[in-house]
Structure formats: C-alpha cells, structure tokens
Amino acid sequence: MADSRVPVWLDCDPGHDDVFAILLAAYHPSIRLLGISTVWGNASLEKTTQNACSILTAISKSTSVPVFAGAAHALYRPPMHAPTDIHGESGLDGTNLLPKPVITAANHHPGLNYQSNTAEEAVDAAAAALRSEPPGSAWVVATGSFTNVASLFTKYPELVGHVRGLSLMGGAIGGGFTRAVMGYVDGVPRVGNWTQYAEFNVLADPEAAQSIFGDEELAAKTTLIPLDLTHQVLATQEVRGLLLHGNTATTTTTKGYSQGKTELRTMLVELLMFFAKTYSDVFGITEGPPLHDPLAVAAVLAGLSSEIPFYDYDPADTGKTRERYEVSVITKGTYDEARAGARTGQTVAKLLPPGQEGVRIPRGLDIPMFWKVIEECVERADAANKAGLPFMDLN
Ligand code: BDR
Ligand code: CA
C-alpha cells in the first residue's frame, strides 16, 4: 500500500523547543521524517548535533532517522556567539536525563570535530532524500538559522520546483499582527527577541533568509512561523502538567492527571522548566515559554484530515480572505551593530493583493489541538521506549 505520510526533512539547532519539533516530526502519524540536518545557533554545531543525536536516542528513533551535521556559521558572516542566556551552555541545559547518544552524525569523520566543513555533505544528503520522494510531496522544515536550507536551494535550484513546501520558524512581524505578548527587555516592549527588531533564526543568517524570501517560486511555497504566532503557544503550568503525567492512563491523581510519568516526560518537562525560567528572566513572560519550533512542523499538515488548523487570515475579516505576503530581510549591519540598535535581521512583511501568491504567515492556530497532538506524540515515544525497540525501524 502506498505510504501517504508527508515526507519531511528537518533542519534544526536543538535547543529546547527544537526538541519538540523533532518529537512531532518523528512521531506524528501523518509525517515520515526522512532525516535531520543540524546547524549552529542555540549552541555550537558540535553541541546542536550531539543534542539531536541524544534526543533521537531518548525517543527510540536513533536508528531510523539519520543525522547530518551542517553549517557551523552563517553564509557570509563570522561565527556568532551562541546565546547561552537562552538555552544554556549545552544548548539543552536544565536536565540530567538526556541520554548519551547511541549514534553520531552520519557525516561525522573520526578524528575531526563537527566544526570541519560538513555543511556541503548535509545539503547533499537532504537533496538526495528529497529527490527520492515524488514531486510535490516532500517538505523542508527549518527551525534554526536558514543557512543549510539556503545552501540547499542555491546548490540544487531544481528542488524548488520539486518540493511541496518549506516551513520556517523565524522572523517577527510586529505592528499588531497578532495579539501575542512579545515581552519586555529593560522595560521596552519587543518586536524581535534577539534584538529589538530581529528574531534569532533570521538574525543569525539574514543573507540566507533573504535568499529564500527573494526567490519568488520558493517564497510562494513557504510558510513562515514568526514570534507573533509562537508567542501565543505558551507551555503553561497546565500544559507542563499534561506533558508530565499524560492523558490516557486509566488512573487519575488527585490533581486530575493520569499517572503516566516516565523518564522521557520528566526530561521534557525539565527542559520546559529551564526554558520557562529563561523567558521569565529575560523577557518577563511568566505564564510559560513559547514553544516556537514544533509549530513549523505542525504547519506541514495543512490540507490533511490530521491537520492542526492554522489561520492565515485577519481575524477581523469575516470573509476570512487568505493572506499572502512579500517578505524581505534587512541584511545591512553586523551582529554587533544589531545588538547596538540597528535593524539588521528584521523581517519586513508586505500584504499582497488577494489571490497573489507569496509567503503564508498564519496569525493563529488551534492551540488546544496542538498540545493534544504533542501529548499523543509523547505517548507514542513512551510506548516505543517501553517496548525497548531502539534497534527496530519504527519509521
Ligand atoms: C528561535 O530561536 C531559538 O532560540 C529557538 O530554538 C527558535 O528556533 C526563536 O527565536
Ligand atoms: Ca531552534
């Protein structure tokens, strides 16, 4: 029987929220995860790659999902110091339960560390995996800087026509695009997170982002998940309780949760607790941390019966006219200038006339449904761990 699942290549920089992107891509029943490439960002490439391998180990997917280490810095910029105040030294601080990875990246060369020139091998691996899928079927999802993805479509431009879509977590629109709370730094309300104007993944490699949005054909296949959307999806205490205890066991505790607590759930919630503290300390968002990255994975389900509905129209528009945008990125300025107040890395989105193709930027989604789906993915991962199937291909 033909496999009707959506093939996905995931490029990421784990990263607390990237962990949930991996979980969703690996365990959603309508997604077939082809492979993972890593990029520097939330930590060095060495660490984000190690983290990706560790997470796959933690969810019994280490032998069915290959990992390729990608770019260690931006296309045309010097290495950027990883934001340790957001994800900690390791990129995944906050838990002692991360397993030692039972795999290394497929392009890890013994004796060399991941800082060596691996980017091209990761891009080639992604291209081969995508090409082996039928035209118009596979998605590329990026939840770190867009360096690897930009290199992929530059080196293999024919893939622009071949893929079904590109889903990116990044950017910040501002100007009341949504009602999400973006947070305050030094008492000043924010649009971006890494600077006043810029979101981290876009600022990390603005030229890479611009090369994607500047390609009309690719832009028309692109979904952008900006902070304005992700800041609506907070891992509140209630959500953390759901993820810690699960929802399906028959016995419930006095708190109303079923008793499903496992090592994996404990680890995931410890990661969320660390991320919650970051968001509270740095941005003054105390309700819970926004879980940015898995939303870019969820967006590939559009049009399927298992879809998590995303709303790509203005809530004030009773006609629900589908919106599409022309997006550009401010590339002028160095990282230091951006930190000092320049608009480097800002995403500028211009609404296109109705019917014209462009970047899809949802303004909302079915949030309870999103958390339900994440919880179900944890259940599946728990079941695989319990069955002790790390060496069977569950994909
Ligand atoms: C993005 O930056 C990183 O901190 C997160 O993993 C996410 O991809 C949010 O701006
Ligand atoms: Ca990320």
From TrEMBL:
Residues 8-372 form the Inosine/uridine-preferring nucleoside hydrolase domain. The keyword DNA-binding does not apply. InterPro entries: Inosine/uridine_hydrolase_dom, IUNH, Ribo_hydro-like. It holds the Pfam family IU_nuc_hydro. GO terms for cellular component: cytosol. GO terms for molecular function: purine nucleosidase activity. Keywords: Glycosidase, Hydrolase. GO terms for biological process: purine nucleoside catabolic process. PANTHER family: INOSINE-URIDINE PREFERRING NUCLEOSIDE HYDROLASE, URIDINE NUCLEOSIDASE. Belongs to the IUNH family. This is Uridine nucleosidase Urh1. It comes from Diplogelasinospora grovesii.
